[in-house]
Specification:
single chain; alpha/beta; globular
């Protein structure tokens, strides 16, 4: 109705303008008016012709490596959008809305209430050109109607003000080293990187949510080079520690939370304060200046006591919390009743990861140029965009996983079935044959198959030029791309559709710490989040970022892995029960020694309705309200 109202107002205002001019002039002016209208019509015709030319132009396929060009992106041709036909301009939609028309999404606007930082047109305190993705990326996400709550937006503005107050004008190195006093009313969470890029991003989301709930200020270390991958998220300040900030290392075990928890006993006084005592001598101990929190894949049972109520009260008296994690631990915060109440207020739809990640993460301009260049060249004109994310913890290509992923895509209806001379096939015979040929090719030539994308323009013996189904396959190994593409080049499909398969990068192995590699990883994650459907590998943080940002509940591979080269007979995959990441190494049936015996974390499905065990995955996740 709002869009219809805008259309009506545009039409009415235009008519009134013409009518008003007609009523104010005599016959001579009427003649002049017709001349002006004629010239305007000719000019409009030229513009319409140019617009039609732009809309019909499709960027030709090229080698993907050409997208490495880091020069500023030129104005891209407008791609035709099947369901959006009306282009808005800034004067029509208002300065506070984002017009997605220039990026190929004609008629799509992002109103202020759907933004995490309202851009306020030309008056924004930060120049939009310094971080284009902060606003443009919202045009590319297309799943669902995810709007941040007013409470979350208010909390973000309060946090941003606190961040500026607790950071700007202070020597953070001297404060951390206790050479200067803590600013009044300020405490800090210092995030420390651990493992790959996906692990880092999901753990930063968790650290920020914790900072938001505890009125702390989030800082990140420089070691991960995240400042070279993402724009600064907080206006008028920085979340990066100074260059002279000491490196965070595990020098003393007593700095680690699990060791600290184990060494103390605690009692609650009448006024609600906590008295921490030495568990051996019973003497009241001085709380540390900082505490290292460890939440990771091989944590101890004492480390996980971070989620216990009394331990959380002790944290409130510790100035610095150093957050080491490779997990998405934010779901664990729902285990604490006082946090759960606030989280339900901030995220009434429970799409916690989506809202926080979309707010925090905006790729730098060079990465964003790579993302949009790939999207415009290969994905914008597609009838449907399919993302397949392949991750298995092996250093080599596993041919049976190629079979698994094709059968999953066909079984779930994401890709059409293949056809041989004798008819439709539903077994793995075709894929086994293609995989065998691919393996033999690699052994003979000692290199990967290089199937050019334009080969798919004539696959399935088609002569029509309908919009293709484009598969974006992200993997460290190129063979998964080549084998899937060869399947649809060699055989027709039941829908007689053009199937294109592309991969932005194939690095062969994970190169954590390599900046060039990490930029490609970020680009691939964001492209995955722009898909219409996603098939993902279980337990993959890369996949978590893709479908978590998109707000899509993915299809997940089942019984994933070689397993002595045996594939399941059916049920190759299934749709999981939540879009966001899973907390893999989560607390369950856990005692909290400093709390009364009744305080115990049990079956999450029954005791914490906001959480669910992840289907076809490991761990627990937030039970979003728009998922089954």
């Amino acid at each position: 109705m709002e869009l219809l109202g805008i259309f009506n107002r545009i039409g009415i205002n235009s008519m009134m303008g013409v009518k008003g001019r007609g009523c104010c002039f005599g016959s001579l002016m009427v003649v002049l008016g017709f001349i002006v209208l004629s010239l305007s019509f000719l000019q409009m015709s030229d513009k319409c012709s140019l617009q039609r030319l732009k809309k019909s132009y499709v960027v030709p396929f090229a080698q993907v490596d050409s997208v490495n060009d880091s020069r500023p992106q030129q104005q891209i041709p407008l791609m035709e959008e099947t369901s959006k036909t009306t282009k808005f301009n800034s004067s029509t939609i208002g300065d506070d809305s984002i017009d997605c028309g220039p990026f190929g999404f004609l008629g799509k606007i992002i109103p202020p209430e759907h933004q995490y930082q309202v851009h306020k047109g030309s008056t924004n305190e930060r120049d939009r050109s310094s971080c284009r993705s902060r606003y443009e990326q919202h045009c590319f996400w297309n799943a669902g109607d995810y709007s941040p709550s007013l409470e979350f937006q208010t909390a973000l503005r309060d946090y941003e003000a606190r961040h500026r107050r607790c950071i700007n004008g202070h020597n953070m190195t001297a404060i951390f080293l206790q050479e200067e006093k803590m600013p009044e009313g300020c405490q800090y969470v210092l995030w420390k990187e651990w493992d790959g890029t996906g692990n880092q991003l999901i753990s930063i989301v968790s650290a920020f949510v914790y900072a938001l709930l505890t009125n702390r200020t989030l800082l990140i270390t420089r070691d991960a080079n995240l400042h070279k991958l993402m724009c600064e998220p907080f206006p008028g300040t920085s979340w990066l520690v100074p260059t002279d900030f000491p490196k965070i290392e595990e020098k003393q075990k007593t700095d680690r939370s699990g060791v600290f928890y184990k060494s103390i006993t605690g009692t609650t006084k009448g006024n609600g304060s906590i008295e921490a005592k030495d568990g051996v001598g019973g003497e009241i101990i001085k709380l540390p200046h900082y505490l290292q929190i460890r939440i990771y894949h091989s944590q101890s049972k004492d480390d996980i006591r971070f989620f216990c109520p009394t331990e959380d009260k002790i944290h409130s008296h510790i100035p610095w919390i150093i957050f080491w994690s490779n997990n998405y631990s934010a779901p664990g915060l729902y285990l604490l009743p006082h946090f759960k109440k606030v989280l339900n207020l901030l995220f009434p739809d429970r799409a916690l990861f989506l809202h926080v990640a979309r707010y925090l993460f905006s790729p730098t301009n060079d990465i964003w140029s790579r993302i949009t260049r790939i999207y415009d060249s290969y994905l914008a004109s597609a009838e449907r965009r399919i993302g397949i994310q392949v991750r298995y913890w092996s250093r080599r290509y596993e041919p049976q996983l190629s079979t698994h992923l094709l059968m999953c895509a066909i079984e779930s209806g994401v890709l059409p079935n293949l056809v041989k001379d004798e008819g439709v096939v539903s077994s793995t015979n075709i894929m086994d044959e293609v995989a065998h040929k691919n393996l033999m090719f690699n052994q003979q030539d000692g290199k990967h198959m290089q199937i050019h994308h334009n080969m798919t323009l004539t696959n399935n013996q088609q002569t029509n030029f309908s919009k293709p189904i484009v598969v974006l396959l992200t993997s460290l190994h190129r063979e998964y791309v080549d084998t899937l593409l060869e399947s649809y080049v060699q055989y027709p499909n039941v829908l007689n559709k053009r199937i294109m398969v592309m991969s932005p990068s194939h690095e062969e192995k994970q190169k954590t710490g390599n900046l060039h590699h990490m930029k490609k990883v970020i680009a691939d994650m964001w492209l995955l989040s722009f898909m219409d459907e996603i098939i993902s590998s279980p337990k993959s943080t890369f996949g978590y970022i893709g479908h978590g940002l998109a707000g899509l509940t993915p299809i997940v591979f089942r019984d994933w892995g070689p397993k002595d080269h045996k594939l399941p007979k059916n049920n190759f995959c299934g749709r999981t029960n939540m879009p966001g990441p899973c907390f893999i190494n989560h607390p369950e049936n856990m005692d909290c020694p400093l709390d009364p015996p009744s305080v115990k974390i049990g079956d999450l499905n029954f005791e914490v309705p906001e959480l669910r065990h992840c289907l076809y995955q490991w761990g627990i996740g937030v039970n979003e309200l728009n998922t089954p």
